[in-house]
Protein 1
Amino acid sequence: MTVPTGRRERKKAATRQKIADTALRLFLERGYDAVGIRDVAAEADVAVTTLFSHFASKEALVFEQDDNFEQRLTQAVTDRAPHEPLIPALRREILAMVRHCTADGSAPIYRMIDESRALREYEESMRLRHAESLATAIAADPALPQTATACRTIARFVIDAYALAREAADPQAAVDEIFRMIEAAWEAA
């Protein structure tokens, strides 16, 4: 994510981060369902309207890195070096994201997500949106002359690779195994 340069942008980013950090702390302390939006706003010392100007929903507070992850995925396609193959670039980005999301302290967050139907559903819709953005980026690359179906399929595989590897006992081995299959599918397309 780009660092805000102006004072106003820095203040907005700091407020957003304060709200997200406060929400996550409260959700982990009290349970996701036991904490309301007003609780988060009061604890973060912001108005409810301010909270909603930064986050569209209560679920979005848990997935505050959502836009950053989506952007990183599409940039793995658009910013890769000339003649760099697509699949290794995506593998590298997914591995970095998995490492971030499996760092120490993340297990309680994913346990909370697994225990909440609303969070599971939000995560699934987020993953579908990420897959569509990634498919669009792949399809827009003139060096990758694949059908729209092939682009959408590979994008879904990549997004699922992230989810599967994040849950694996050995995330790196899982990424390696999954991306061997993705590479084969891409070559077959």
Protein 2
Amino acid sequence: MSNEATTTPVPDSPFRPEPGDRDLAPQFVLPLVVRIERAAPPARTDALETAARAVLVLLGDERSAGEGEWARAVRDWQDARIRKVVRRARGAEWRRAEALPGVTVAGGSAEVRVFPPVPLDGWPKDLARLQVSGTDLDDPEPPGAADPSAPVLWMNPGLDMSAGKAMAQAGHGAQLAWWELDAGARAAWRDAGYPLSVRTADPARWDGLTTSGLPVVRDAGFTEIAPGSCTVVADHPALRRG
């Protein structure tokens, strides 16, 4: 599922919906691959949470900073539009994906591998051949209440998104929260293993969440939903007002 996020426009923001200088830069994408075996597909909420943590793991990895081996690709990706693509793999496909440079993040039932950003037209062949569609997943049981002392990525209750689309949006939300944190808060989150929950917001709370000052993801509208739709509010305790 290919996604580009936007948020409230700010000058030269990688998430602004209008064309800008970032569109003139070479465009990159962050690939994520979710393991979906026929006999044991992951639970939907666990897949969303694992994808969000995978994005954070990539951002917080020492190889993504300074002179690290992934740093140039990450900088180029963040200097242009922020795009994420979620594909699915099973069996031999998954084993080939795991052989490529990246990090596998495991949840309760989900496994997601995140790779350093690649050019839009420069995908490794073992990732390019993977399918985007077919990532519809279900929760066998309703997820429990989110821990209010930990970060929560609140999904828009009024949008119907495939699991692949929602995984990319959760990743956008986690990334926005990461950018808003100071170095100390980032280090604390990383050292704790990036705990977070993904939950669908109560419809009665949604408007308040989007106007609370917390980071809000707005979709560019290329797939599934209308342009400018608010998809995720990133509710990190360190970013809450009051």
